[in-house]
Task: inverse folding
């Protein structure tokens, strides 16, 4: 993160049903075999291009191998190393050269967000009240050099991912949940095999057992993290490993010029017999880095590039061209993602410490203008509360209706201002990430909308690389600099209310040192509800709590929801087997093939 | 010598010693000013440049009035005139009409005419102030170096070399990034503008400094300086009363020629995203946003670009005319 | 002569040293003076969910706890003598000139720079060839046909040329030639010369012409005024009186005398461009030194910024040095002090 390259940062956004293991296995069986097309709910659309033909079904299904898949990136990966990457597109792409214990099914529609075993033969087997999780590896899976992959390689991979000075970018779930007993890094490990971590046991070469600090029923979601992709200790070069990651998947690195480009070619040691999930259609995969985003779009439209790898959708210029031209529009898909663009209302800053002043902001907000800033209807739907409707159990409600035309309720806002004791309005500052034109547009629109009731906004842009670490995300700075409103955005790591809400509404994740994403929610009731939800084993009851949290936050008027995001993605005509994977909110890179 | 932007400016890099040699006011009878004015009056192109500048300055000063007569407030949204899915103005020509002379900004439908008009304020303000600063520092340093010579000259000359060896645009961007967002009793856009003035002005002084130093070197050997010295005049007196009046011509010429460079410098900084905060419009900032959208909204790019072009051209024309008028040897 | 060159060389090295110290101060001293702690600086380079301990470890690893002098010394030593870098399981030696490792990607900076240099060099080479030829030719013809329509038109275009920001002409050119007419390559196009020379030229022709348009304008003006001045000098009259054909007078005597200052400026311009054509590379999205610098500054990747500043300053200093020496060789009137 904080690389400043992608215009829109997409963290792993996982949607649809948080399934129990049984259901997932059922679906995995259904979607098993070498073909993912035409099974279950997904219908295959053979070659007839139409808008959204790649959503919920496979477009241009094919088993034809060969050709080169060309991808382009407007910036660079945070890292190609499985221990050091935290982007949805990267987790999507890494499955081409790495096999984690479990994975999201490469299938269209809701199936894409279900977990299926990958390196493991089955999903995890919990014991000790879900404090211990056991996986058995598939036999015969090999690294690119032909050596057999053992449980020790997986253990070593997880161990090294714990070292955040060498791999700062990856998620910290294993650091937080494993019973580390002080273990920090295999690079500082006294054990001769560098396998000193007690929290992971490998009783034999095919079995790996994880011991957690506290029960966690969703551990399979951890097991799908790239950190469980095996790494041979002998080939590990630490921060340099990304130069040549040793492949366990169908492709391996051919050339790799960091920051510029890299190519993957077929890995001869990969055996389709050990892998029910991967089609591996193209012979070769080329990725070009640091290409201007608008130029990528132009190349997509001209057929010189097959996929914009970040999956964040077309830029405004290309969006206009595609939506305005039916012959182009039929090749586009609008993918909903579990992401909310919103504005945090800071209760630390006077007079927003008064709930009525915050409510005045909510009522005065122009929802249509907010949506326009994100590209209009193509950029997403107007959000009225926090949880995107695609998250299971999410309920849509509107505490602060914006009048008949959604442009805001000025009389209500003025009324709230009176109750706040600021009948003529007040002044405050609104922050945004300077490199993001859309957030700037939000701020400018907000300034116009709030001016109608006398609230004067000063706009302030900050470099996005420091936005959360030094400015908006640092409570003392935000308070001292009067940042009353702060643009924000969040995509779920996790396909349920916990994964979406916890990082942005739990007051206990706020650190005085900065780096927070929760900029404004400090509501004791919310914290209580969160704790209650973790103790609630019943799925339906738990989902109701998530919704209750959502409502409590909205009632406190500390979050101003903007847009539930959608991305407009383009599928060039030579792509085959195209579909949006709901688990990632973008095309499934594992399934793609090309016409030669 | 060379300008920090990757674009050239012949004015700055003309070898000063060669370019303005003999410009020191030896002509008898009519004063230099009178002669210059006579020459300038005949130079229609330069006068046209001057006229354009006058209009620009008036437009900048009376921007609110101009906008009230011919446009809409520069921050007012007109989203109803924007096609929500295409994000650009409905209808042809980017929304150019009698109501919106330059059309509409994509996404939010602001009046481009008003924004270009208001953009003149920031551009000209920063360019003028920064040039003044460069001129003040450059003149002082140049005279001091040229007049005193010796180690003082060496130090100042090396300092100028040092400045010229810095990749300035890079530096300016980096500096804007590390400077805090309030301080010196200023905050918000006032501070941003002040900071841009200081950075642009501070990096510009060696260009003027070199020229003034060269002029001073030749002037100080002249008879009238010797005469003053032999009459017991002190250095400050000689510098202020004898040298400075004779340096007015080159100072005037190179100041005029530095303004357009600074307009470009400011635009470049805004283009690279380190200008003033929105919603205050700047030409460079508009171009920067237009660079993502110009294929679907060409007017968003063309009008701010033309504004920069016209401004810079006008100053260049006037500056050239002034140089020709003040330099007896010019064509 | 040799003493002169040595003196200038020493001066140049000293200059680079000062540039590096000032650059270092801007990025390392100014934020500290503004009240940032070592941890504040380090917090930029840790992951999203890092806790205090991880921030402290990162500050340690990047050496932010050391006194600034020590930090600068480490940087300077790396350039001269190389440095070792801890990759986790093993340390790697980074040979001189080592500009350190990116705070973010942990990749060594120097190979990155070498990688970007060909793009910038290609840009500078092609553009400078075009602007030199076009500018000087236009200037000569203008001077010879003073007052003609050609002269007025050429000088008008020249003035327009120096008055246009390259990010405007660049976008305009892309919009017209690449996206409307489709005759030139779109933005972000670059092919290595060694790979395919024809494609290389095709990809770069638009940025070349865009840069050249701006530069040629200035050169035409300089050449023209220089020629006018030269042609009125005594030795030209002498040459004419000797009965030499006008062509010889112009090209052999007139132009040669005019060219000296042009060559000087040419050298400096090329030096400056090699240090990164920031605006051009940004407009055309070419991954040269300039765009690298912009991205590095945006990401606060200080070793990269230091590296790129040093390289840019190096080219400027080098160009100055070469020009000074050439000048001294060509023009006997220059005193070698």
Result:
């Amino acid at each position: 993160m904080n690389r400043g390259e992608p215009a829109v940062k997409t963290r792993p956004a996982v949607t649809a049903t948080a399934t129990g293991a049984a259901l997932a296995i059922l679906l995995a069986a259904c979607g098993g075999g070498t073909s993912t097309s035409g099974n279950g709910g997904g219908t295959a659309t053979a070659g007839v291009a139409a808008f959204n033909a790649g959503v919920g079904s496979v477009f241009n299904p094919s088993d034809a191998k060969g050709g080169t898949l060309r991808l382009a990136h407007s910036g660079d990966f945070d890292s190609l190393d499985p221990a050091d990457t935290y982007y949805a597109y990267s987790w999507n792409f890494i499955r081409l050269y790495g096999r984690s214990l479990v994975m999201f099914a490469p299938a269209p529609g809701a199936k894409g967000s279900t977990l299926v075993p990958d390196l493991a033969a089955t999903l995890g087997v919990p014991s000790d009240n879900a404090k211990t999780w056991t996986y058995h590896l598939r036999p015969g899976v090999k690294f690119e050099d032909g050596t057999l992959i053992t449980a020790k390689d997986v253990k070593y991979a997880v161990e090294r991912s714990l070292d955040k000075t060498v791999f700062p970018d990856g998620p910290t779930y294993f650091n937080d949940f494993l019973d580390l007993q002080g273990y920090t890094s295999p690079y500082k490990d006294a054990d001769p095999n560098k396998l000193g971590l007690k929290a992971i046991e490998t009783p034999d070469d095919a079995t790996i057992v994880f011991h957690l600090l506290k029960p966690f029923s969703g551990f399979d979601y951890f097991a799908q993290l790239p950190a469980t992709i095996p790494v041979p200790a002998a080939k590990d070069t630490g921060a340099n490993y990304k130069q040549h990651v040793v492949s366990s998947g169908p492709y391996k690195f051919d050339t790799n010029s960091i920051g510029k480009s890299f190519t993957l070619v077929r890995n001869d040691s990969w055996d389709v017999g050990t892998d029910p999930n991967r089609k591996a259609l193209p012979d070769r995969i080329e990725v070009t880095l640091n290409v201007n985003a608008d130029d990528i779009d132009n190349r997509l439209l001209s057929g010189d590039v097959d996929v914009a790898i970040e999956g964040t959708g077309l830029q405004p210029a290309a969006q206009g061209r595609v939506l305005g031209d039916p012959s182009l529009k039929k090749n586009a898909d609008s993918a909903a993602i579990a992401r909310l663009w919103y504005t945090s209302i800071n209760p630390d800053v006077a007079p927003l410490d008064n709930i009525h002043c915050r409510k005045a902001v909510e009522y005065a907000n122009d929802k249509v203008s907010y949506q326009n800033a994100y590209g209009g209807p193509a950029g997403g739907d107007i959000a009225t509360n926090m949880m995107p409707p695609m998250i299971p159990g999410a309920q849509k409600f509107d505490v602060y209706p914006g009048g008949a035309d959604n442009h805001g309720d000025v009389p209500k806002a003025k009324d709230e201002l009176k109750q706040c004791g600021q009948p003529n309005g007040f002044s405050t500052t609104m922050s945004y990430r300077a490199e993001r034109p859309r957030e700037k547009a939000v701020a400018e629109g907000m300034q116009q909308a709030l001016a109608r009731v006398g609230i004067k906004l000063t706009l302030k842009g900050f470099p996005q690389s420091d936005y959360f670490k030094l400015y908006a995300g640092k409570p003392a700075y935000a308070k001292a600099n009067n940042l009353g409103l702060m643009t924000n955005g969040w995509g779920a790591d996790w396909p349920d209310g916990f994964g979406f809400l916890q990082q942005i509404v739990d007051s206990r994740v706020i650190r005085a040192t900065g780096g927070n994403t929760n900029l404004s929610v400090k509501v004791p009731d919310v914290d209580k509800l969160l704790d209650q939800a973790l103790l609630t084993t019943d799925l339906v009851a738990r989902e109701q709590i998530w919704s209750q949290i959502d409502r409590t936050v909205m009632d406190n008027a500390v979050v101003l929801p903007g847009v539930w995001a959608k991305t407009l993605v383009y599928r060039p005509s030579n792509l085959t087997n195209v579909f949006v994977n709901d688990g990632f909110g973008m095309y499934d890179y594992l399934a793609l093939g090309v016409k030669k | 010598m060379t300008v920090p932007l990757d674009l050239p400016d012949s004015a700055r890099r003309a070898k000063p010693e060669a370019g303005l040699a003999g410009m020191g006011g030896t002509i008898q009878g009519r004063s230099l000013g009178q002669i210059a004015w006579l020459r300038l009056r005949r130079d229609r192109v330069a006068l046209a440049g001057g006229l354009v500048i006058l209009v620009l300055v008036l437009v900048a000063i009376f921007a609110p009035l101009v906008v009230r007569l011919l446009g809409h407030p520069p921050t007012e949204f007109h989203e109803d005139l924007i096609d929500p899915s295409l994000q650009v103005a409905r209808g042809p020509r980017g929304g150019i009409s009698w109501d919106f002379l330059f059309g509409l900004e994509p996404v939010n439908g602001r009046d481009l005419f008003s924004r270009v008009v208001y953009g003149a304020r920031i551009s000209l303000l920063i360019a003028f102030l920064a040039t003044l600063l460069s001129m003040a520092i450059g003149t002082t340093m140049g005279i001091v170096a040229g007049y005193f010579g010796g180690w003082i000259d060496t130090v100042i000359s090396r300092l100028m070399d040092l400045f010229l060896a810095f990749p300035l645009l890079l530096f300016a961007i980096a500096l804007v990034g590390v400077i805090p967002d309030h301080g010196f009793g200023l905050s918000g856009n006032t501070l941003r503008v002040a900071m841009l003035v200081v950075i642009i002005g501070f990096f510009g002084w060696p260009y003027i400094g070199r020229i003034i130093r060269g002029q001073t070197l030749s002037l100080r050997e002249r008879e009238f300086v010797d005469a003053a010295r032999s009459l017991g005049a002190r250095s400050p007196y000689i510098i202020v009363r004898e040298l400075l009046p004779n340096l007015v011509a080159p100072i005037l010429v190179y100041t005029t020629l530095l303004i357009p460079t600074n307009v470009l410098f400011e635009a470049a900084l805004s283009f690279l995203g380190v200008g003033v905060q929105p919603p205050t419009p700047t030409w460079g900032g508009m171009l920067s946003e237009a660079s993502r959208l110009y294929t679907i909204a060409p007017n968003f790019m063309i009008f701010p670009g033309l504004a920069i072009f016209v401004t810079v051209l006008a100053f260049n024309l006037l500056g050239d005319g002034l140089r020709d008028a003040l330099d007896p040897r010019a064509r | 002569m040799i003493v002169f060159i040595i003196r200038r060389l020493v001066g140049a090295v000293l200059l680079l040293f000062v540039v590096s110290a000032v650059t270092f101060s801007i990025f390392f001293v100014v934020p500290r003076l503004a009240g940032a702690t070592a941890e504040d600086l380090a917090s930029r380079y840790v992951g999203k969910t890092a806790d205090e301990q991880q921030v402290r470890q990162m500050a340690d690893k990047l050496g932010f706890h050391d006194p600034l002098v020590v930090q600068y010394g480490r940087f300077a030593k790396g350039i001269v003598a190389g440095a070792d870098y801890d990759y986790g399981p093993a340390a790697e030696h980074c040979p001189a000139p080592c500009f350190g490792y990116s705070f973010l990607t942990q990749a060594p900076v120097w190979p990155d720079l070498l990688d970007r240099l060909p793009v910038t060099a290609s840009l500078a080479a092609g553009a400078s060839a075009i602007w030199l030829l076009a500018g000087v030719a236009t200037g000569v013809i203008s001077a010879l046909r003073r007052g003609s329509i050609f002269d007025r038109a050429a000088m008008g275009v020249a003035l327009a040329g120096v008055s246009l920001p390259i990010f405007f002409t660049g976008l305009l050119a892309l919009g017209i030639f690449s996206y409307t007419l489709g005759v030139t390559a779109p933005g972000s196009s670059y092919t290595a010369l060694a790979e395919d020379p024809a494609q290389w030229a095709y990809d770069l022709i638009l940025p070349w012409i865009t840069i050249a348009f701006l530069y040629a304008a200035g050169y035409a003006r300089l050449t023209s005024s220089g020629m006018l001045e030269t042609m009125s000098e005594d030795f030209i009259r002498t040459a004419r009186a000797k009965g030499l054909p006008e062509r010889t007078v112009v090209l052999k005597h007139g132009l040669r005398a005019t060219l000296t200052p042009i060559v000087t400026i040419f050298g400096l311009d090329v030096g400056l461009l090699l240090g990164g054509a920031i605006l051009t590379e940004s407009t055309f999205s070419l991954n040269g030194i300039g765009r690298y610098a912009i991205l590095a500054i945006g990401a606060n990747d200080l070793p990269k910024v230091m590296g790129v500043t040093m390289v840019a300053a190096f080219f400027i200093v080098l160009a100055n040095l070469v020009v000074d020496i050439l000048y001294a060789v060509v023009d006997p009137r220059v005193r070698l002090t």
